[in-house]
Write a structure and sequence with these properties.
This protein has 133 residues and is α/β, with parallel strands linked by helices. It has a domain of 70 residues: 2-Layer Sandwich (Nucleotidyltransferase, domain 5), CATH 3.30.420. The protein contains three helices and five strands, in the order H-E-E-E-H-E-H-E. A five-stranded mixed sheet has the order 3-2-1-4-5, with helices on one face. Helix 3 links the parallel strand 4 and strand 5. Helix 2 packs parallel to helix 3. It is rod-shaped and about 115 Å long.
C-alpha cells in the first residue's frame, strides 16, 4: 500500500502578537514604577581649577564668616538682605561683572540671598571667586 504524501505548507510563527505583549508589559512597568530620590547622598565637592581673569572694573561683594556683606571693601551695614538690596539698587551700571567673594565657612543662605538679590536687581554677569587647593 502506497500512501500519498500531501504537500504540507511550512508552519510560520507570527512574532507580532508576542512583540505586542512585550511592549504592553514594558508600558505597564514604566507606568507603575515609582522613582524615589535618595535622601542622603554622599558627595565630594569639586575643586575649581579655572584660569584667573581680571575683568575691568568689576564689583566685588564679600561675605565674611559671620554672614556680613561688604561691597568693594565697604560694609553694607548688617547681614540683613534688605540692606544689601538697597546697596545694590544704588549701583547705576548693572552691566559690571559682580564677583562674589564668600568665605568657605559663611552660611550658604547668605550666598543664595546674594544671588537672588543680584538677579532681581538686574545683574547678569555674576561669578563666585574660588581658589586652587
Amino acid at each position: 500500500m502506497k500512501f500519498r504524501l500531501k504537500n504540507r505548507t511550512p508552519l510560520e510563527l507570527s512574532l507580532t502578537p508576542m512583540i505586542d505583549v512585550v511592549f504592553l508589559l514594558l508600558i505597564f512597568f514604566m507606568v507603575t514604577t515609582t522613582f524615589s530620590k535618595e535622601s542622603m547622598i554622599k558627595i565630594q565637592l569639586p575643586q575649581a581649577e579655572g584660569v584667573a581673569r581680571a575683568p575691568e572694573k568689576q564689583l566685588v561683594l564679600t561675605i565674611n564668616q559671620a554672614g556680613q556683606y561688604f561691597l568693594d571693601d565697604k560694609a553694607v551695614g548688617s547681614e540683613k538682605p534688605e540692606q544689601l538690596t538697597q546697596a545694590l539698587a544704588e549701583i547705576s551700571n548693572k552691566q559690571r561683572p559682580l564677583l562674589i567673594n564668600a568665605d568657605a565657612r559663611a552660611p550658604i543662605q547668605a550666598a543664595i540671598s546674594v544671588l537672588d538679590i543680584a538677579a532681581k536687581q538686574g545683574f547678569k554677569n555674576i561669578t563666585f571667586a574660588t581658589q586652587k587647593d
